Amino acid sequence: MTAPFTYTANPSRVIFGSGTLARVGEEIERLGLDRVMILTTPYQAEEGQRLAAQLGDRAAGVFGEAAMHTPVDVTERALAEFERSGAAGIVSLGGGSTIGLGKAIALRNDAPQLAVPTTYAGSEMTPIVGQTENERKTTQRTPKVLPETVVYDVDLTLHLPREMTVTSGINAIAHAVEAIYAEGANPVLGLMAEEGIGALMSAIGRLGEEGMGADPEARSDALYGAWLCAVCLGQGGVALHHKLCHVLGGTFDLPHAQTHTVILPHALAYNAPAVPDAMEQLKRATGSASPAAAFYDLAADAGVPTSLRELGMPEDGIDQAVEIALENPYYNPRPLEPEPMRDLLAAAWAGERPA
Ligand code: NAD
């Protein structure tokens, strides 16, 4: 039986392939923009300059100061630069931090955005913006910040470092996993989630010692999977896994993608008894009788951290994390109870493999 559902798609245009960066100019024109400001992190500023040269007169400048967690003071500097340059729109070239800066600008001035993602984090397909001020991160959901156009160019991901490839990929997988069992789940997202998880797992599984490196087939499967998982995050809900990652990131300053990688197997093991249908879908997506163990093995086999201990979380922080997670909980299919949650975090802290 098909259960009742509601489905709302987010209106964004997606260009996917190899060499698609060359199409950014025509896509800017399609958006009706004369000139755009390019955003990057300091690390990717040179790539931003190359894109500016490619765009010629359409480039109004490069703002290369995007930073983790979208600090408001950086956004204010970028906004001043945007106004000074006479740009009419934004091109965000980079990962979730850079795309987050573009969204924070759009939140304030409604500037159209074209995102060119270079990681698998997925912010480009979501109407969600997180911002940090006075060491507090707040998140809001508004269609104002959804990028109008997203250009996925596989070539830009060919040299994504090995650890980031794995952790950013598992971060994406976590979006799809929770979309399957969160509030707002629907059959279309279920299809996308299953396909997205399968594509990413297969691509990460082909990771060699040097990373997927210049293996364009594995890289295109990974980016395709990341897009599908990003749609899941943008249109679906989240649950305990994302709540724990937000609490751990905020309270102990743990790194974003690595924290998702460690928590996913344990959060899924916690919820598994409450979501039998979702588990059937995840078994198909992972090709494993235990999806939680499969996600753990994916990280362990690739040699990335599988414990909160390795990420620098103090063991005596577990009780505090449970307390904060319970203060203002998200929807979750299995009731949130302090003792089992403590066990979940203790297992994640020690890096135990779930059954
Ligand atoms: P990031 O954007 O912080 O990038 C990390 C570093 O890697 C940066 O120096 C960046 O320049 C570099 N980098 C990016 N692509 C590269 C590539 N192809 N090759 C080499 N280096 C590259 O990391 P991220 O994981 O993409 O994003 C994490 C941030 O995104 C977090 O702050 C998270 O909260 C946010 N996020 C937001 C949403 C949302 O919907 N709002 C969704 C997912 C993530």
From TrEMBL:
<dbReference type="InterPro" id="IPR056798">
    <property type="entry name" value="ADH_Fe_C"/>
</dbReference>
<dbReference type="Pfam" id="PF00465">
    <property type="entry name" value="Fe-ADH"/>
</dbReference>
<keyword id="KW-0560">Oxidoreductase</keyword>
<feature type="domain" description="Alcohol dehydrogenase iron-type/glycerol dehydrogenase GldA">
    <location>
        <begin position="11"/>
        <end position="153"/>
    </location>
</feature>
<comment type="similarity">
    <text>Belongs to the iron-containing alcohol dehydrogenase family.</text>
</comment>
<dbReference type="GO" id="GO:0004022">
    <property type="term" value="F:alcohol dehydrogenase (NAD+) activity"/>
</dbReference>
<protein>
    <submittedName>
        <fullName>Putative maleylacetate reductase</fullName>
    </submittedName>
</protein>
<keyword id="KW-0520">NAD</keyword>
<dbReference type="GO" id="GO:0046872">
    <property type="term" value="F:metal ion binding"/>
</dbReference>
<dbReference type="GO" id="GO:0018506">
    <property type="term" value="F:maleylacetate reductase activity"/>
</dbReference>
<feature type="domain" description="Fe-containing alcohol dehydrogenase-like C-terminal">
    <location>
        <begin position="165"/>
        <end position="349"/>
    </location>
</feature>
<dbReference type="InterPro" id="IPR039697">
    <property type="entry name" value="Alcohol_dehydrogenase_Fe"/>
</dbReference>
<dbReference type="InterPro" id="IPR001670">
    <property type="entry name" value="ADH_Fe/GldA"/>
</dbReference>
<dbReference type="Pfam" id="PF25137">
    <property type="entry name" value="ADH_Fe_C"/>
</dbReference>
<dbReference type="InterPro" id="IPR034786">
    <property type="entry name" value="MAR"/>
</dbReference>
